[in-house]
């Protein structure tokens, strides 16, 4: 066994529906502005421009039912997303072969310190301070493809305290799952354990302590998270 000058961090692992085994996470990629209505509400042209991605840290994924309101922000927003979990990868993956690398799907939230993100944008700086903070990606259990099939259509809806705030369909994504995987693989070597968040429909907005967010996507298990 190797010796370490500091103890290695515990691996990040997510529950899998119907299994006692866990899904070990390697990297987390997030696509921006992948629904036209959301692009418009953020002040951007939704024409099909090349996709862009940012990253969260693996330990930002949080499979717990609570979201601690983060520090240094007074404007934290919910963003409803589908997570795509990969069991294999590579470089320069073709669109036609991309889905063969998908292990399963899960409901997830891309929580955003919108005020800090806006400041970073205005200053031409990276977004991590607004996106990659602790517990910033609540996530449900992974549903293996062998049980659900590939999810390319179906409703995505977020309720905030029983009021619908976000509603759309997976088929409204500008860049579909195979295209996201293929594009990413031209810039990064994808691998087993990678997770991709697929973008959010319109209706993003603020949360406060005590709010309850409930995300449902197609046939995936709903994700319910309380802001604490």
UniProtKB/TrEMBL annotation:
<keyword id="KW-0378">Hydrolase</keyword>
<dbReference type="InterPro" id="IPR011234">
    <property type="entry name" value="Fumarylacetoacetase-like_C"/>
</dbReference>
<dbReference type="InterPro" id="IPR036663">
    <property type="entry name" value="Fumarylacetoacetase_C_sf"/>
</dbReference>
<dbReference type="GO" id="GO:0018773">
    <property type="term" value="F:acetylpyruvate hydrolase activity"/>
</dbReference>
<feature type="domain" description="Fumarylacetoacetase-like C-terminal">
    <location>
        <begin position="28"/>
        <end position="227"/>
    </location>
</feature>
<dbReference type="Pfam" id="PF01557">
    <property type="entry name" value="FAA_hydrolase"/>
</dbReference>
<dbReference type="GO" id="GO:0047621">
    <property type="term" value="F:acylpyruvate hydrolase activity"/>
</dbReference>
<protein>
    <submittedName>
        <fullName>Fumarylpyruvate hydrolase</fullName>
        <ecNumber>3.7.1.5</ecNumber>
    </submittedName>
</protein>
<dbReference type="GO" id="GO:0046872">
    <property type="term" value="F:metal ion binding"/>
</dbReference>
<keyword id="KW-0479">Metal-binding</keyword>
<keyword id="KW-0670">Pyruvate</keyword>
């Amino acid at each position: 066994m190797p010796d370490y000058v500091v103890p290695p961090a515990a691996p990040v692992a997510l529950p899998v529906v119907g299994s006692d085994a866990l899904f070990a996470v390697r990297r987390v990629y997030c696509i921006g502005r992948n629904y036209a209505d959301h692009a418009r509400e953020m002040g951007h042209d939704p024409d099909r421009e090349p996709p862009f991605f940012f990253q969260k840290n693996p330990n930002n994924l949080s499979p717990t039912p609570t979201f601690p309101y983060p520090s240094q922000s007074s404007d934290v927003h919910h963003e409803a997303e589908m997570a795509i979990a990969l069991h294999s990868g590579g470089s320069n993956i073709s669109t036609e072969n991309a889905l063969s690398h998908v292990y399963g799907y899960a409901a997830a939230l891309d929580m955003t310190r919108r005020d800090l993100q806006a400041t970073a944008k205005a200053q031409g700086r990276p977004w991590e301070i607004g996106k990659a903070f602790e517990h910033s990606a609540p996530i449900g259990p992974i549903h293996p493809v062998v049980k659900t099939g590939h999810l390319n259509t179906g409703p995505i809806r977020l309720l905030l305290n029983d009021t619908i705030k976000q509603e759309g369909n997976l088929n409204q994504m500008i860049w579909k799952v195979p295209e996201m995987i293929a594009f990413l693989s031209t810039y990064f070597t994808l691998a087993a354990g990678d997770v991709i968040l697929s973008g959010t429909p319109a209706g993003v907005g603020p949360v406060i302590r005590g709010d309850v967010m409930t995300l449902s996507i197609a046939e995936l298990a709903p994700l319910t998270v309380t802001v604490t």
